[in-house]
Amino acid sequence: MVGRILGSVAIAATLVAGGWSGARAEEIRIGSVVSSTGPASLLGDPQKRTLEMLVEDINAKGGIKGNKLKLVLYDDGGDANAARTFATRLAEEDKVAVVIGGSTTGTTMAMAPVFEDAEIPFMSFAGAIQVIKPVRKWVFKTPHTDLMACEKIFTDLNARKLSKVAFLSGTDGFGKSMRDQCVAAAPKFGIEVVHEETYGPRDADMTPQLTNIKNKAGVQAIIIPGIGQGPAIGVRNYKQLAIAVPLYVSHGVASKEFIALAGEGAEGVRLPAAALLLGEKLAADDPQRPVVLDYTKAYEKKTGQPVSGFGGFAYDGFMIVAEAMKRAPSNKPAAIRDEIEKTKGFVGVDGIYNMSPQDHMGLDLSGFRMVEIRKGDWVAVP
Amino acid sequence: MLNRMLRSRYLPAFLMLAAMLALPYVLPSTYYLRVASMVFVFALAAMGLNLLLGLAGQVSLGHAGFMGVGAYAVAIGPTHLGVPAIPSALAGVALSCLLAYLMGRPILKLKGYYLAVATLGCGLLISMVLTNEAQWTGGPDGMGVPRLVLFDAPVRGVQTWYYVCGVALVIGMVLAINLTFSPTGRALRAIRDSEVAARVVGIDVARQKLFVFVLSAAYAAVAGSLLAFVNGHITPDSTSGFLRSIELITMVVLGGTGAVLGPVAGAAILVILPQALTVFHDYEHMILGLVMMACMIALRQGLVPALTARFRERTA
Amino acid sequence: MRASAMTTELLQFTFSGLTVGAVYASVALGFTLIYNASHVVNLAQGEFVMLGAMSTVFLAAAGLPLPVAMILAVLISMVAGLALHRFAIAPARGADPIALIIITIGASIFLRGLAQIVFDKRFHSLPPWFGAEPIVIGGAAVLPQSLVVLAGMLVVLVGLWLFMTRTLFGRAILAASNNPMAATLVGINVPVIVAATFLISSLLGAVVGILVTPITLTSYDAGTILALKGFAAVMLGGIGNPPGAVLGGLLLGLAESFGAGLISSQYKDAIAFVILLAVLLLRPRGLLGGAALERV
């Protein structure tokens, strides 16, 4: 009986799928799997909105080389298992030409083998370096690696002549990955990690951890790698305990609303940030200024929400793919892949991308700027 | 012959086997085989839980923890310890059983919601270790699972794993049916109905409960190992998380506790529904919640028992 | 000198634990009320907290004065509580407890799904009532809002106790939870009582959500973890016992903060659960749970 149920479900699903796959010749299918709900929805939601906005926009302008785009987007809820199933669906059922998405490193790594096998280019929004190292032929990514954020922070610490740091890192994928990269890179910069604490992604109070850091002799700076509410609460508690040493948060603090959430404690906090965060504050001759302002205006008009760095990953990812599709001789996955790899000098909101067969991200440290929060706004630190 | 099969206690297993063999001819692409494999894997884990809940009346809200042990065994064994995949899987099942034994001995004395929260705690502990001990497990982003190599040939392809998972499920079903009709099964049912009465008739209640708890952990570990092989990359949340445990218990209850096909039906609903609901985009969670509520209100014993009862009524 | 630094540290952990624990305690109290009247463990209780907080944020953002937004938000949460009872719990009357739990899980998925559409998926805060400048007590820094939360908790407890013992309706709830059959015989309308407990629980949840959001922030999916912790708190204290729920919540919060401060922040939730397990092994019905009663 269950067999019958399964069978009829399958038949029904086939009918629906058949309706979908009756593709018109001029339609290019772009697949996406993002975590627009669940614990990573802070990342996935702006990515989903960005992709929908960009596809709509391009189609309104007549598509790419006259071909309309069709976005097939699934929500994996942050579950690597669901991501894998949707990846198979994109490859097998939806027959997409290219995939943009994968909000977290976990979901990205679960999907990558599917697209490697199916030979479909996959542009991920995951931070961790393992996505592109070793290089996988079909896998690319747009965000800076966590290592770059660490290096940016450590360079700033060196300039301020501070060397002993304490970490308060999130136990989620982002916080954990960045913490690992930072601790590994610290000796190169003469930085000593003297104390480590963690927080859970849903913790509402971190005063015990910060009390320990405060009482630890010799701590000269605190670093909070993490995303979402964690760093905001950490900064509030840092203020509450009147801790005097400088505080750094990470590029996971991706949106201006962080300043409001973190409250007065945010004053003087520093972070490595992409140009997107600075917006109007970018110098008039900054090459990224036009693209940052365009995206920010369009996104805020479309969604009524402040622009977020995570959405920026999706913007860069989509635009790199769109440019590659314009250059590609055909709409075949392989042709698109080859052109993505040839991306040179693409100015995105996260930096200027120069990809190569050895580098499937194509960003260098110049994409990050050190910013400080002053009077409720970002200020670039020279 | 057919008549004997229809009356056989193994009928559900026959049906499952037939469905498993027939489906590849009906399903149009490997995507559907992947979805079906997921149904098999989660049905297997839920089936173990059903022995615990449906047969013995004991609840566990931490069963995904045992899935996590099975899953990480086949990832860690080959990656870090140089142990081949199959022995790793067996070790994972053994470890899972050992953990269940050590945890079960004290906590199975607890009743009802107290047992629920204690098992929930045990599941969280396992999940937390898998998340935090990153040098072994890769941390929250998870780790890759080396491809299974049998006789020098890597086992790959959605289709192969579909059959492996399906056969595992059928074997699991046969074992579950045997247990149900064995003296142990009768003892467990007696415990479910009344522990005091069971004790009075001479049943070693603690021992029987511990046995079925360990057995259900073994089911979960096997399911976890299969999940890891099928996916090739595992994360703590997707194998052992609290929400996964809740999902397993929901599968058992939706499908119907006690019925052998119940977990299969429950797993089918919770695996297939999210795939079907993608057409509703942002509304999919609301609809999923509504379907769950409606199912439980309309068919309060669960899908399979309620439907079989109706079927019997009509044919009687 | 060292000793006083130590005292300050412990005091700081205590305040942290009490603040977080007060949230768990109030969720636990909501569980207990509904459980007592209907033997339903309502895993959607966390969603009431979220609804109160998120509705206030969005109504205030829409231009309503904050107090009006708060009152409306509490009403919204109460409507949700009543609807949950009317459309999901009442029709399933007589079903297995486990089936009822699955219904409340379905309800929480539904409410979360609704919230992500009506509200958004970002984090939000509310302004603290008496500023963000911490008060220093014995060297430990306490946010004024923490005191508001603790005071609010106390008011709720006393109010609830008075309501339960001094009003006819409250006593009817008590009677119905002690013995529904006898209550029916003396003319108490048990379904109405159960509905009332859903109403009170959702009110309680919303109030707590509004009180703590200035400290904890909120988002559409804040309810899940609260339900989990609240459930653990209920069992720690002993199910069905309101003082037990409060005690369980506070202890759980303290276990987490002392665990994080003194042992390991990475395993603080594990420490809290190990303590819970240890308590249950010594007292299988929780700290304040009644004597074991077993049907034969």
TrEMBL record, chain A:
Gene Ontology biological process terms from the UniProt entry: amino acid transport
Pfam families: Peripla_BP_6
Keywords, alphabetical: Amino-acid transport, Signal, Transport
InterPro entries cross-referenced by the UniProt entry: BCAA_transport (IPR051010), Leu-bd (IPR028081), Leu_Ile_Val-bd (IPR000709), Peripla_BP_I (IPR028082)
Keyword Transmembrane helix (UniProt): no
Gene3D superfamilies: 3.40.50.2300
Domain Leucine-binding protein, chain residue ranges per copy: 27-362
Top-level taxon of the source organism: Bacteria
Family: Belongs to the leucine-binding protein family.
Protein name: ABC transporter substrate-binding protein
Organism lineage string: Bacteria, Pseudomonadati, Pseudomonadota, Alphaproteobacteria, Hyphomicrobiales
